[in-house]
């Protein structure tokens, strides 16, 4: 923890450096506590008590790594440069010494997330923000500046181990603070100061330099004799007689129940080297319990509250002797020396209080299917055996993290199931909600589903395979530790509680919503844990489990049934044993889902997986499906031939986007030039509107079954002259017409009103009696034509892009007016894959920019101008007015009592002091906003000694002198040269000013139009600054 450049200080640990591990402690709440965070299922920080030596703190949750340390100016440059980059973490800075005044990035060691000032506030102090963990380090939320809490230290000095310091959030300029609220300790970012003491945990240099040595906090296995390791039995429980520790070989050597963490019994340098005679606790990772000794000197696992220093601390020894060496605190609270090495050092474990040695006793026991086997139970003895030596084997990081997740999930699911059992007995949902934190349960399930997510399809092959291997290991560890059974038990309990109506009283409130979410997430999690894992799926290859699966499937609502279908699909794909056990009634349940919920592709996937297993046809399932499904039904097969239909659209997109400048009433027409029947089917032609949220016009595409044209799915709305079409269903609007009523020479008008919303059509100027109402407004709408071969038609969008045959309805605009100033209109196919007859395939189609313009000016609400800047805002406002007036006069405008855009008269071409209050206020606000924006963009404004008087530009009387005697006099800035960085700032300010103006206009009801229309509130300038 010193400057890496100074060789004399290379091993000095009195200063903090980047990559060092620290704990932040304080006594603000009346007791010594450490800042801690969990990261899995709970992002908020909390406080871990470290005052009582007889109750071991979970320091693994308290360790933060100083990942980066930068000056504030360097941080601003970094954030600005990285604003367009994605990814996690920073640029890295080696082992740099930390100075007061630096901004630091603190990474939580356990979760690999970053300590951040969150945007939420759950404290009683409404001016404070929550402090927690964030998955990425982008922006300023994760950066904290370090300041001395003592007058003996000053800004720019090196930060020493043990110093008291103050941490300030860069994003909110609030202090990292802790306080008592309602008898509970909370951590937040507040205007109140808390002094934090730096407790050293370990150094980055020592971890990098001495990779193979054992450190405090390491997760490892105790190997005995090379073929067995210290673990707990698979049937372990807290009941007397079953709370034992054993030596076991075989598969357990790769399972999570054989993992232990060595925790030095001290707070300072708890992550330092483990040396001989250093007292430590040995913690079992998946149960969270500690190896301890009871009053009969028997070895067992004790809970945290019982893990006193006397009962649960051990030494590592080189050899057995009667010496009992007790080191003083000054010899213990050091980083230590690299002595004990993985795989190289043989150690003996001695209980510190009794002096007994960790050894074993052998006994014979019978195991089902194996017969008599010898088992070894770990015990404590005065002398032990000759082969009591143990070797350490470090666990993989992925393995230890999964073990921590298992401990968290085991605790949470056990508490959840216990709460459900209590609810079932006392039937009081309010007690259940107080006993179980449903929000934490939801977050935990979300994190678990992400934890077991499949690798993305576009990932590199090697990386994808590594992800698959890691995923299989996680799934195996969860199954081996019984978490899969806990999930199944929770699903059963949830179904019982739901079916008996115990949670009806919560319907509509937050707890009720969380309950519904949990019900769906449990099935998704179950599917994620078994997907692609034959061992886990094979658990369902017995009659009871399979019947359980189908009973859940048949009784579920549509949303929950989807999750259960995922589970069933995974079982059938990855477990041929389950596939061979399928019965007629099982297949009937699946087919009933088709009739209940429609042609759901997930149901069809399950039916497909029934028909083929491992590439071999399953004749019994195929025959059953044919017998039960096909007769008299067309659920699977479409036997009619249909004409190929193509869809085209112009590159125009309109929609209802909050805060955007898009007009909301549009009209266009389609002229039919030629219609000819070429097959046994009538010509296909439909005209209407489609939505970017899901319109995929080809058979099998889009949601559910996709479609052959506009109106065949839920994202498009069409008219064919006789029927209105959407979702593949038609509604007759022209009585007596059995087929499409469109013929050559017809003109179909399409009107879209997004304010209601409603879509109407006209045929040759006559309104069609039927409309689409109250459809989903997500996405952007565009006009579309779907037609078969030998049909010719034209878009009439208005203006030069096809003059309309009929006048649009009142307040509706021709669609061409939505074109941006520099946009080139094109007509493109909605889906095109080339000419298969000529073996020509197209590449990816050009992706259109279909996003609506929503001005987003820089947020300056948190910016406060220094007093010396306040003094210049009035002068800046006046100069803004003078520049505006000069530009207006150059454009041909002149003074007039009333504004006249035709004759170019403007009443504001007067002195700044004589402007109307509203106009003067606008210029002042623009000046203040400009100054605040400069600061918000990361720049600093300073004032040099200006000349006593700045010259003004001397403009000629003609044409600048106005009839009222006013002549603009802007400041002469010709002698000022701007740097490249300043030019960049000017572009940013110009864009921000445009966005401010546009946002104000949109709030006043203005929308985009090709021409300026004061009465209709349309403006051609309501477009992105770049356009």
From TrEMBL:
Pfam families: Ins145_P3_rec, MIR, RYDR_ITPR, RyR, SPRY. Residues 95-149 form the MIR domain. Residues 577-802 form the B30.2/SPRY domain. It comes from the Eukaryota. It is a multi-pass membrane protein. It is found in: Sarcoplasmic reticulum membrane. The keyword Chaperone does not apply. One of its GO terms (biological process) is release of sequestered calcium ion into cytosol by sarcoplasmic reticulum. GO terms for cellular component: calcium channel complex; sarcolemma; sarcoplasmic reticulum membrane; smooth endoplasmic reticulum; Z disc. GO terms for molecular function: ryanodine-sensitive calcium-release channel activity. Keywords: Calcium, Calcium channel, Calcium transport, Ion channel, Ion transport, Receptor, Repeat, Sarcoplasmic reticulum, Transport. Gene3D superfamilies: 1.10.490.160, 2.60.120.920, 2.80.10.50, IP3 receptor type 1 binding core, RIH domain (1.25.10.30). The keyword RNA-binding does not apply. InterPro entries: B30.2/SPRY, B30.2/SPRY_sf, ConA-like_dom_sf, Ins145_P3_rcpt, MIR_dom_sf, MIR_motif, RIH_dom, Ryan_recept. This is Ryanodine receptor 44F. It comes from Melanaphis sacchari. The gene is Rya-r44F_4.
């Amino acid at each position: 923890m010193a400057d890496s450049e100074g060789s004399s200080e290379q091993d000095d640990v009195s200063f903090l450096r980047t990559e060092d591990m620290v704990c932040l402690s304080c006594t603000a709440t009346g007791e010594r506590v450490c800042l801690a965070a969990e990261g899995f299922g709970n992002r908020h920080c909390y406080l871990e008590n470290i005052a009582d030596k007889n109750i071991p703190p979970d320091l693994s949750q308290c360790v933060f790594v100083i990942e980066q340390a930068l000056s504030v100016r360097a941080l601003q440059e970094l954030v600005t440069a990285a604003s367009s980059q994605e990814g996690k973490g920073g640029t890295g800075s080696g082992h740099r010494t930390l100075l007061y005044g630096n901004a630091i990035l603190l990474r939580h060691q356990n979760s690999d997330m970053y300590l951040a000032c969150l945007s939420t506030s759950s404290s009683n102090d409404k001016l404070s923000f929550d402090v927690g963990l964030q998955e990425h380090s982008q922006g300023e939320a994760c950066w904290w500046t370090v300041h001395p809490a003592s007058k003996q230290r000053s800004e720019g000095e090196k930060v020493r181990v043990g110093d008291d310091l103050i941490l300030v959030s860069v994003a909110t300029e609030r202090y990292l603070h802790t306080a008592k609220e309602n008898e509970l300790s909370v951590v937040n970012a507040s205007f109140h100061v808390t002094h934090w003491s730096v407790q050293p945990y370990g150094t980055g240099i020592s971890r990098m330099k001495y990779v193979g040595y054992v450190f405090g906090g390491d997760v490892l296995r105790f190997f005995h004799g090379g073929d067995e390791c210290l673990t707990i039995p698979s049937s372990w429980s807290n009941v007397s007689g079953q709370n034992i520790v054993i030596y076991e070989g075989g598969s357990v050597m790769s399972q999570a129940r054989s993992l232990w963490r060595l925790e030095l019994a001290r707070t300072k340098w708890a992550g330092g080297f483990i040396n001989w005679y250093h007292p430590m606790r040995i913690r079992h990772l998946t149960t969270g319990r500690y190896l301890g000794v009871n009053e009969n000197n028997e070895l067992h696992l004790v809970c945290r509250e019982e893990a006193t220093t006397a009962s649960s601390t051990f030494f590592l020894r080189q050899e057995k002797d009667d010496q009992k060496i007790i080191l003083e605190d000054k010899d213990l609270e050091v980083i230590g020396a690299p002595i004990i090495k993985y795989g190289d050092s043989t150690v003996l474990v001695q209980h510190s209080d009794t002096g007994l040695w960790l050894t074993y006793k052998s006994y014979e026991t019978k195991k089902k299917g194996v017969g008599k086997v010898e088992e070894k139970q770990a015990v404590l003895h005065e002398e032990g055996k000759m082969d009591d030596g143990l070797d350490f084997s470090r666990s993989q990081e992925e393995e230890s993290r999964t073990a921590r997740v298992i401990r968290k999930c085991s605790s949470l699911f056990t508490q959840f199931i216990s709460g459900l059992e209590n609810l079932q007995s006392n039937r009081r949902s309010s007690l259940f909600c107080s006993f179980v934190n449903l929000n934490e349960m939801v977050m935990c399930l979300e994190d678990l589903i992400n934890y077991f997510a499949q690798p993305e399809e576009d990932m590199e092959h090697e990386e994808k395979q590594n992800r698959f291997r890691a995923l299989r290991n996680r799934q195996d560890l969860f199954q081996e530790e019984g978490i899969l059974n806990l999930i199944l038990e929770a699903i059963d309990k949830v179904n019982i509680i739901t079916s008996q109506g115990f949670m009806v009283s919560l319907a509509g409130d937050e707890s009720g919503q969380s309950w519904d979410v949990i019900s769906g997430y449990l099935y998704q999690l179950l599917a994620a844990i078994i997907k692609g894992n034959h061992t886990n799926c094979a658990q369902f290859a017995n009659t009871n489990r399979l019947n359980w699966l189908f009973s859940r499937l048949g009784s579920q609502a549509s949303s929950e049934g989807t999750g259960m279908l995922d589970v069933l699909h995974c079982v059938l794909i990855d477990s041929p044993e389950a596939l061979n056990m399928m019965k007629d009634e099982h297949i009937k349940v699946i087919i009933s889902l088709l009739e209940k919920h429609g042609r759901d592709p997930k149901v069809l996937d399950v039916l497909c997986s029934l028909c083929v297993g491992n590439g071999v046809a399953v004749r019994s399932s195929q025959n059953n499906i044919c017998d039960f499904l096909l007769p008299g039904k067309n659920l699977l097969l479409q036997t009619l031939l249909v004409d190929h239909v193509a869809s085209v659209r112009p590159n125009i997109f309109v929609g209802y986007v909050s805060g955007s400048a898009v007009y909301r009433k549009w009209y266009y027409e389609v002229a039919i030039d030629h219609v000819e029947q070429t097959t046994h089917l009538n010509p296909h032609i439909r005209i209407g509107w489609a939505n970017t949220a899901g319109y995929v016009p080809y058979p099998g595409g889009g949601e559910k079954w996709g479609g052959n044209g506009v109106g065949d799915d839920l994202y498009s709305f069409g008219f064919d002259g006789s029927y209105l079409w959407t979702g593949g269903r038609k509604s007759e609007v022209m009585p007596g017409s059995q087929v499409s009523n469109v013929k050559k020479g017809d003109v179909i008008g399409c009107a879209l009103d997004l304010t209601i919303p409603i879509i109407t059509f006209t045929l040759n100027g006559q309104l069609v009696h039927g409309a689409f109402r109250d459809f989903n407004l997500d996405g952007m709408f565009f006009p579309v034509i779907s037609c078969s071969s030998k049909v010719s038609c034209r878009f009439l969008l208005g203006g030069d892009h096809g003059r309309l045959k009929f006048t649009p309805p009142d307040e509706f605009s021709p669609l061409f007016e939505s074109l941006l100033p520099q946009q080139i209109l094109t007509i493109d196919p909605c889906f095109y894959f080339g000419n298969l007859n000529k073996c020509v395939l197209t590449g990816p189609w050009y992706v259109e920019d279909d996003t609506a313009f929503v001005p987003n000016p820089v947020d300056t609400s948190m910016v406060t101008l220094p007093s010396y800047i306040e003094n210049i805002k009035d002068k800046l406002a006046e100069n803004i007015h003078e520049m505006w007036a000069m530009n207006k006069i150059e454009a041909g405008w002149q003074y007039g009592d009333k504004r006249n855009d035709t004759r170019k008269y403007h009443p504001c071409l007067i002195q700044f002091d004589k402007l109307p209050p509203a106009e003067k206020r606008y210029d002042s606000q623009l000046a203040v906003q400009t100054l605040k924006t400069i600061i918000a963009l990361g720049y600093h404004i300073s004032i040099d000694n200006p000349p006593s008087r700045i010259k003004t530009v001397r403009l000629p009387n003609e044409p600048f002198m106005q009839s009222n005697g006013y002549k603009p006099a802007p400041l002469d800035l010709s002698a000022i040269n701007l740097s490249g960085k300043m030019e960049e700032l000017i572009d940013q300010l110009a864009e921000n000013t445009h966005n401010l103006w546009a946002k104000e206009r949109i709030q006043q009801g203005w929308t985009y139009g090709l021409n300026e229309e004061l009465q209709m509130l349309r403006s051609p300038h309501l477009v992105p600054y770049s356009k």
